[in-house]
Amino acid sequence: MTKKIVSCIPFPPDVVMSMLSSHADLDLSDIEIVNVHKFPEEKIVDEVKDALIIIGDFTFNTPITKKIVMAAKGVRLIQQPSVGYQHIDVDVCREAGIPVANTAGANDISVAEHTIMLALSLIKKLIYANSKTQKGEWPQLEVGGSELYGKQYGILGMGRIGREVAKRLVPFGVNTKYYDIVRLDKNEEDRLSVSFMALEDILKTSDMIGLHLPLTDKTKGIIGGAEISLMKPTAILINVGRGELVDEGALASALREGKIAGAGIDVFFEEPIKNNNPLIRLENVILTPHIAGTTNEAKGRIIAMAFENIYNVLIGREDKVQSLI
Question: What is the secondary structure of 230-289 as a DSSP string?
Answer without folding.
Answer: HS-TT-EEEE-S-GGGB-HHHHHHHHHTTSSSEEEE---SSSSPPTT-TTTT-TTEEE--
